[in-house]
Every structure is written in C-alpha cells, then in structure tokens.
Amino acid sequence: MSSVASIAQSEQVIPLSEEEEAIRDLVASISDGELAPIADELDKKEEFAQSVFEKLGAAGIMGLVIPAEYGGAGASLLAGVLVMEELARNCGGTALSFGAHAYIGSYNIYKFAGEEQRRRYLPDLCSGKKYGAFALTEPGHGSDAMGLQTRAVKKGDRYILNGSKTFITNGSVADTFLVFARTSEEGARGISAFIVERDFPGFSSGKPMEKMGMRASPTTELFFEDCEVPAENLLGAEGQGGYMALQGLDMERTLFAGLPIGLIQGALNIALKYSSERKQFGSSIASFQLVQAMIADISM
Q1: In terms of DSSP H, where are the helices of the chain?
Q2: Domain range for 14
Q3: Which terminus has fewer CB within 10 Å in the chain: N or C?
C-alpha cells in the first residue's frame, strides 16, 4: 500500500473515497505486475514503457482527471496523486512520462481548448492511442519561460512556427503537443498556445537525451522550421498562452507531488528487504539499532 494511503487510513488525514481506493489498487496491480519486472531493463536501455501504457490505457487511466464525456475517468486530483505514487514506486521515469501526458499535456488541452478541439483530440489521448506533451522550455529560457523566443506568425488560415524547445518530456513519443510561441513582443501577454501534431509540416523532434536518472522517460528537443499549424489549433485567443502555461504548471506541481513520495516508498521497500536479508555477526542488519533508526527516518 502506498504511503499516502497508509496515512489516510491510519490517521484519517486524507480519507479516500471508494473510487480513489479502487483506482489506487488498480494502478498498484499494474505497477507491481507489469512495470516492476521490467523497470530495471527500461532504465538501463532508456526505453519507454509502451506495454505498461497500453495496460493503463485499457484500464481507463490515461485520461484519469478528464471528464468522462471526452473519454476520461473524471477522477479526483487526489486519485491523480495516488496514481503517480503507485507508478513511481517501481519506475520514476514511467511515472514522469505518465504525468507529462495525463496532467500537463492532455489535461491542459481539456482546460483551455474549445469544444471542437476537445472532441477532436481528447478521446485518443484518454484512450492511450496517442500521447501528449507540454512544450514550453527553450534552450535560452527555462526558469524565465515567459521570455521564450519561438515565433508564430499568422498567414491566411495558418500560423507558421519557427524556433525550438528543449527538455521536453515525451518529446520522441508524443503525437500531440501543447506548444507555446510568441505572437507579439508584449512579454508574457505576447505568448499564445497551439496544439501541434507530430505530422504537421515543419515539425521534428531530436533524439532522446542521455540522463542520469528517469531514463525510461524520453526527453528531447523539438524543432519548428516553418511549421504549419492550422489557425483553428490556437487555444483561446492570441496572447493568452502565458496565463495558460502558468496555470498548467500549477496543475503539474500539485499532481506530481505523488512522484517523489512514490520514489521514497520504493526506496524504503528495497531497504527493508535488504536489511532483513543481509546478515552480519549472525543477525540480520535490520536488528541493529542504527539501521532501524535510518529506516525510521526514511519512514517519517
């Protein structure tokens, strides 16, 4: 059982609904049964957990917090945190890619798109047929995201995008990108948001970057070279993208809280197993007071 769920049951700090418990248990079974056996290999080979995401899609989890009318599960934000935790217990990279798809890629399309855009894009994203990504960070603009320089110029019934993005989670596997580009020089008010499909002319992605961790989650650059985006793929109105980006990151920070909790829980599980198996001076090291104190500190 996850640590959030344990606290909820033992202290009633966060009482879980029956639906939240069912979602947690369902994802825990997929994580333990499908992800755990391949997690080490995924990390070593820097491979995306395609088979696991197919299972999550079949279980209705890929559109977890999106309303059912668009193909989602309509679950609570707490359920979203629990899903991140259960995946991260066994593979942080898989949890990261799931969150980038479900919470900042797909969910922000739901939140800011018009009705026609929602019905065009969300069903495939919610089913797992297609993957989503959030493209804000640029080579020269990370923390200063509102200073981005990717340009979008309207020409007739299209916008022409030029520029690049970097450190984009799911960049090499996503089909649908929420891309932020500058349509005027008015600072944050000059940024607009677009839905960009992988097969749009002028779009390409780089090779996955080599990383120290989260290696099962592909991180790449994106390139826009006279990329043609239909005008109807603008989210909201021109100049609203900066607000959308900041709101989207607030959602990310809330739901991604489950990822480090899951990583810690996974590390604790490994430590408990190892300390009970490792023998020194005729006893398992789990019986040593100092080791017990270390484990207690992790548990706190």
Answers
A1: 3-11, 18-30, 36-45, 50-58, 77-88, 92-99, 107-112, 115-127, 241-255, 258-277, 289-299
A2: 3-130+251-269
A3: C
> Do 170 and 120 fall within a single domain?
no
Asked whether residue 87 is assigned to any structural domain, the reply reads yes
From the list 167, 260, 256, the residue with the least C-alpha distance to 210 is 167
Average of per-residue pLDDT values in the chain:
92
Of 250, 258, 262, 255, the residue nearest 76 (C-alpha): 255
Q: Distance between CA 99 and CA 62 in Å, rounded?
A: 9
Q: Which CATH number goes with the domain that contains 66?
A: 1.10.540.10
pLDDT band with cut points at 50, 70 and 90 for residue 24: very high
Partners of residue 230 on adjacent β-strands: 158
The residues carrying an active-site annotation are 252
Instruction: Give me Rg for the CA atoms of the chain.
Output: 21
**pTM for this prediction:** 0.90
Query: How many beta carbons lie within 10 A of that of residue 271, not counting itself?
Result: 16
Residues in the chain: 300
